[in-house]
Batch of 2 targets.
Target 1
Amino acid sequence: MSILDNIKLNLVYRVFALAVIAGVFYVLTGSGILNQYTVIGAKCNPDDVAPLSPGSYIRWNIELKEKKKGRFLVVETLTLPSPPSTWDVPEGATISADRLSCTTKKQQRLFYTSTFNGNWRIPSGYPEGLYKLDVTINGKVSKSFYYQLGRYDNFGFSKEVDVFKGTPAIRYGIQQDDVKKAKLTGTTAVENVCHIVRKGNDFYWKSRNYEKLLLLEHGAGSSAYYFVSIKGAGLIKILDLSTSELKEVEYLEQVSTLLTSITYFGDADYFFPSSTRY
């Protein structure tokens, strides 16, 4: 075989190999294997109750299991507890009609990495209270971060402070020998949220007519928190499964009326452990 024939044969092999690689890439892309968004880490700083001071920042981080390459659209929406006197935001940001929220859009470029991040500057003139930061990435990842800011050193709890809020996914209704299970979604889930607040040294079941709650001792380092109605109307058990990478809190809410018991299971929208300390 001549040298020219060898060159032609090698060229054919290379073209065939490239065609195979391109075909495999096309199949993987079409099946979504190379386009997955699996969140393994999502944290915000601060992620609890913190003092509002000059130069405060919100910093968030979302880590994916899959490494990504390219440009990605990151949309952030910051919602305040009340309208600020003046929004201090980047050029091109959109302010909502009620002036409670601000939305920004940016392109973040990754080169075979898996981490998205961002930050917001919080001027000292912004209101104190519960803040919410919603982040979406290419419309495929959606995460919400919550935190509270106050103007006193240890937050004092002289005002009503949010402790916990959760949205149920499952409801069990028990009445004598009858047990009914229902999956809750959309409006039905929102209508049955569990909400706990604190004022002074007392806790209240805000979503249940402000029933007063007793926080049982959960022990140092324990991940379980028990809130019990002092009138026997029910209880809430909060299980904090958070790690240094991912914040994850589940809960059980039991409501009792006469001989009927309703139990909800769900995930927390937010939980501020420091607000449970005296």
Target 2
Amino acid sequence: MLARRTFVAASAALLAAGAPSRALAFVGTETSGVPHTPQGQARTTLDAVAVIAATHLEVRTAWRPPSVFPEIAPVAYYPGRGADPRYPDEVVVWLNPDHPELISPRVSRLTDEIPLFTELLLASVDVRASGLPSLGLESLDPVKRRILATTHASDAAVIAKYSPYPPVDDAEFARRAFAFAVLRQMTPGIGGVAPIEVPASVMPREEPLAAYVGRYADARAPRGRGVIHIVGTSVPESPGGSEAWVRAFVLATADRQPADSAVKRAYEAARAQDEASSGDHYAARRAFAAPYVTQVAALFGR
């Protein structure tokens, strides 16, 4: 696990000096679960960090389209144990692909991960990892539980400066813009790209597992969508299949960029080079996609 500051140093500073005092809003102090004293607040913040870190190791995070998120939690959401149809036997926290800062937090914004931390704390009630301190969440009704979880999440992000992901500066965040677009395109339910299963015999020789074959390349795809041909639904989990799967989405997303964008121009140049080649007809596109495949892979949670 990674942190914006060395965790031990942050712990020592918090316990020695106490956390900055702040208003305890929303709920009464007798039911808030937040201690009155700075020292007590500091200890509770460290407890919250421990719970968040442990729960993060136990849950699965999954990107889901914005339409499935409730108004109360539009950025990240814990739907409850067994509520994710794809992973019915796991505890899953949903992430909105419009907010990649959840797992690519910016150094300049300590609040980026508060929505994720809130949902991890809510999920902790169902995970119940052994040996962890209690934050009192399990004894509250859903409304007060969410309020208290948000308070603890804010303290973990802003006061303790904790993060399970390597934070990036604003320039790096902007540099990942296309990788974020690919991640969004890969999210089920977004649209724009249509993966279609085909026999292995029709796959390109150079891309036998998954290949972007262009727009209007398959009559079964909705009009205007880019088409990815795959040889089986297990391709993304197979050896070598994950890289081919991401690469296909990189190419499909690049093809959908504005004509005057640098990514689109680079993609078209690579495609033209491949079409003129007498050998490997995907070599230039693989080289174009390679750095983005690495970036996109790094954006996926557990």
